[in-house]
Amino acid sequence: MAFLTEAKVAKTLDIPVNLPATEVKQGDWLIVATIKISSPMKLTYQFMTLQMLSSSVDTSLIVAGNKVSPSLDLAFIGLYRNYLSGHPGTQPALDVVKIRETDNSQLDCIPITDISGQFITVRFAPLVTYATAGVYSFIVANNMQSSATSTIPLTTSIDFKLCATGQIRLELEGS
């Protein structure tokens, strides 16, 4: 049975992962949350919302050449283990929530757009658990770069105002 006992509550900590509305410049990234886990701890993650509030350019003008990593679309928040340095778009992530300019949805994300070019992506499944020791970081990134193949001038910075909201659960196993 799934009873919430005093012993279970004493070994569980829910931690917010939040980035208030923040301008993230072209090619930049921010570490939003970091937590170190070791045995017998486990990190559980399921929900994340990433929202683009505004863009410095018309997003319909963005081409594949403007993306640091084309598979990561406009902007993203990724969960990384033992991240050291460099643009997170060039490194493998454990999980990624992306802002897409189209409505090509995946099972874990539902992009919603309105006419003013604002985007929101909600991750609601699957529930994932990580128990491998390490430092886990949530990183928000602007996946843009200048491109000669784009109609956006090379001197124009593609900047986004982004915000993220999510939650992770840290549990102490055993005992």
What does this structure look like?
The protein is 3% helix and 48% strand. Strands 1, 3, 6, 7, 8 and 10 form a 6-stranded antiparallel β-sheet that branches. A 4-stranded antiparallel β-sheet has the order 2-9-4-5, with no helix packed on it. The protein is elongated. The chain has 1 helix and 10 strands, in the order αββββββββββ. It is mostly beta strands and 175 residues long. It has one domain (24-169). Strand 6 (109-113) and strand 7 form a beta hairpin.
Keywords:
single chain; elongated; 175 residues; 10 strands; 6-stranded antiparallel beta sheet; 4-stranded antiparallel beta sheet; mainly beta
In brief, what are we looking at here?
The chain has one domain (24-169). Helices cover 3% and strands 48% of the residues. It contains 1 helix and 10 strands.
Overall pLDDT confidence = 85
**How much helix, percentage-wise, in residues?**
under 10%
Major sheet size, sense and barrel closure: 6 strands, antiparallel
Unreliable residue runs: none
| DSSP summary, beta strand count | 10
Structural class determined from secondary elements? mainly beta
Strand content: over 45%
Q: End-to-end span in angstroms? A: 19 Å
Shape call? elongated
Number of domains: 1
Number of helices: 1
